[in-house]
């Protein structure tokens, strides 16, 4: 239902998503789903490249990624074949688990605070960019490098 509703609104309607949701009398959960779909969140390059698509699914989640792939197919018929294939892939995709936690950063003597979260997000982005292949030991090695660089600054 939601991708069908979202296709009625061009991506340029995204800034007015809350107004539209109010007009449609959507619940809070429905509002979040609807505004998320009318906001462009997947670019055609992410559909065409396996690694980029996996990162998009990680960022958006499988259900939202599938919906955005289907919307891309409708908005650009030239992408229909790849978008439909990606939508099918999204239905079986399982989110990989990032092997580090904030406690790992604190265990290395990094001071508590918002920088822990920022460093964790940076490491998670690096991990995603490497195709989610780095295991816990590789992530810890990267963490040690980053903590060393941060403490030298």
Protein model, in words:
With 153 residues, this protein is mainly α. Helix content is 69%, strand content 0%. The chain is elongated. The model has no long low-confidence stretch (mean pLDDT 89).
Briefly summarize what is shown.
This protein is mainly alpha-helical and 153 residues long.
SSE layout and pairing:
Layout: H1 2-6, H2 17-24, H3 28-38, H4 44-48, H5 50-60, H6 62-75, H7 80-92, H8 102-107, H9 114-129, H10 136-152
Helix pairs in contact: 2-3, 5-6, 6-7
Which labels suit this protein?
mainly alpha; 153 residues
The biggest beta sheet, please?
A: none
Instruction: State the secondary-structure class.
Output: mainly alpha
Catalogue the unreliable spans.
Answer: none
With helices defined by DSSP (H or I, 4 residues minimum), what is the helix count?
10
Q: Using the alpha-carbon principal axes, give the shape.
A: elongated
Q: Tell me how many strands there are.
A: 0
From N to C, what is the helix and strand string? HHHHHHHHHH
Alpha-carbon Rg, integer = 19 Å
Please state roughly what percent of the residues sit in beta strands, choosing from under 5%, 5-15%, 15-25%, 25-35%, 35-45% or over 45%.
under 5%
Average pLDDT metric: 89
Cα distance spanning the termini: 52 Å
Portion of residues within helices = 55-70%
